[in-house]
Amino acid sequence: MDMNLKLKIWRQTNNKSEGHFEMYDVVANEHMSFLEMLDVLNEDLVNQRKQPVAFEHDCREGICGTCSLTINGQPHGPNAGTTACQLHMRFFKDGETITIEPFRAGAFPVVKDLVVDRSALDRVVQAGGFISVNAGQAQDGNAIPIEKERASQSFESAACIGCGACVAACPNGSAMLFTSAKVRHLGLLPQGEVEEEQRVQNMVAQMDKEGFGMCSNIGACEAECPKEIQLYNIAYMNRAYFKAVFSGEE
Amino acid sequence: MNLDSKIPAGPLAEKWTKYKSTMPIVAPNNKRKLEVIVVGSGLAGASAASSLGELGYAVKCYTFHDSPRRAHSIAAQGGINAAKNYANDGDSIYRLFYDTIKGGDYRSREANVHRLAECSVNIIDQCVAQGVPFAREYGGLLENRSFGGVQVSRTFYARGQTGQQLLIGAYQSLSRQISLGTVTMYNRHEMLDLVIVDGKARGIIVRNLLTGKIERHAAHAVVLATGGYGNVFYLSTNAMMCNATAAWKSVKRGALLANPCFTQIHPTCIPVSGEYQSKLTLMSESLRNDGRVWVPKKKEDAEAIQQGKLKGVDIKEEDRDYYLERRYPAFGNLVPRDVASRAAKVECDKGHGVNPTGLAVFLDFSAAINRYGHMEANKRGNHNPTNEEVIALGEHVVSAKYGNLFEMYEKITGDNPYKHPMKIYPAVHYTMGGLWVDYNLETNVPGLFATGECNFSDHGANRLGASALMQGLADGYFVLPYTIGTFLANDISTPKINPDLPEFLEAEKRVKDNINHLLSVQGEHSVESFHRRLGKIMWNHCGMARNEAGLKEGIEKIRALREEYKKNVFVPGTNDEYNPELEKAIRVADFMELGEVMMLDALNRSESCGGHFREESASPEGEAMRNDAEFTYVAAWNWNEGKPEMFKEPLVFENVELKTRSYK
Does B67 touch chain A (CB under 8 A)? Predict the structure, then answer.
């Protein structure tokens, strides 16, 4: 079934210019994904020799973390546990006006229209989000048994796709959920436990340096996370951080 | 041109070990002085860049994404193979080697594949050490499952997100090297040309995607880990930005493209729903462990389903044709991908398809839900469970195994796959063909290496499931870091390469001229519309079944499309800004040339093998028929200014006897 939609889209030439909203009409259908609906709009704009709306996307399977749209005020739109690329038009109504903005956060400057720069997240990982092992140094994969439940908990945290929706959802622009998921993913595993004290301190320091805000336990990050990363990751990180800071060893 | 594969002498199982211990290497003090460019940050690129960094080389790594963690390796779902034999089911390095050679329909090199099987065991160890949270048994040990084309359980996995977890492992290693300063990362930089100085690959030309600035980057050697070219078909399971430009530009500078017609069509993808469709979504092969593939036996039932009058669950058991189990009793639903895809096409072509377009078959989990439900009830001491109890327990087990895939299916289609069988259809997924490389993973251009899907070396005419991740990581962690030394050992006194050399300036000009041309056409049709048309030509003429007349016609069509593109494409905006339409325009132009070489290769190879099915070469039962007497070779193509030439590398089998591949 065809749907006639009005789109209110954020347009901004680059990070030095002022942005503004513009209105567009588009005819979509319920089987399209949200991004395919934007493709239709863009093809239309190109055919009218206008500038298409810049938005980032890649795998369109909900796993690469590239798409970064705020839809009707919510990062990745209305559906729980769903990235914008996995959102389908059958969740919208004919005649509806949809507002589309980039992920908004102080640490994510706008590149163009709906595209933002999330490289700060990479730098947080570079500060310590790894296990220091070179290729070729590993022992047999089964040498250290890991309790199934523990491995599964680690996986839950490792499922983070690094999209930054948690930051965009947070009124403080905090990256605590992102950072804590990495700290917990690695810290729960015997291989990662060794470096935990250093890791958590370095990653938190980098997070602050990048200009991410503080956590005030609002919980919007958890509500908007497309991979449903839970708030207890933050509790885990706080515990690890205090343990590291007060352990007295430097 | 003589293609020297440089396969070391000696018995198959000893070649790699012996070669590794005797090959030229570079001393640590010299490694620091040698620069290496790695293009791509997926499994093959990130693992290569981080390992080279660990060894002490000065590495520069490039990705067109905003972060190295976005590469499309991340979307791999099912798993990664390794000959660990943890399942104690008779697996071994030789068996993995043999399965891969057979699965590839005897069109890959024995020595390369054996090395891959040897490295497979180290990959699992490495990934566990990096913190990859693989699935585990209750005893805390690693769990395995089976995949298509093999009869052992050797696939390691992390739910349906194995690629993501392995890529994050490699990304974290890469991040560590970036923080240590051994790797300089260039995000949002796309390689648009290769620079050759005195016959050696010495640099690349890149476009900064944020500013449009064309930059010259030099190094002692260049590694391409830029993935496959499946997006030449427009619709594929590849991510939207996957493209062939880096590899194709290298072909235009003299590298050879091997077996370009070998394309993998994956049997289990969500079917096309309309003209606006931008990509296809894969449903992991692991689903065929428990899902049964079928279509209605009676054509009238299929038609009623197509018209929406009946649903799959309405069809009685005796009226269902489990055609894979019927045709291939030994492997059943776990036949290799090429076989499963063709079988689906046969049923749909006969009119037994199960969606409005008639291009879909069922993948049904009801039997598995039932089986697991009874097992779970027994475990709980309930030997007389009700039907509802069985289904609830069974769905729980299936959800634990494939939950995220079922969710993804439901999000896209709106159907609940626990209650109704999934509808699936084959789609382009992977390209076995790629840059020709020797045993060192070096192309015919000295100093230019290719790893992962970007090269052609290990999968022959058909790749087995869970082997792409294995190859990408084997190349990057365990092969290239050694073999690149064979080239660089001769370069220890070569000073830093100067990016102001005339060769660099010339390549830069070529890139700028090409961009200026694309922007100046100001024609009537969007890049997207050309790409869609290209995809249709490729799918119709060089898709799941190919024949001489169709290929010849396809070649004419693609040439005409290319001419039209030059005169009538419209690219909005300028070069000096963030301009995704321009990025796409460059990539589509390259796909249009590459597509022609794919068709020429498909035309030349008049046998059927693996994913390449020539209708002229089939048995009376419709099975693919190889022609070993004429085609036991690698076909490597150059571009030659639009008049491609083919060079042969004969394949020598010393250990494996060439047989008709049978899964019956």
Answer: yes
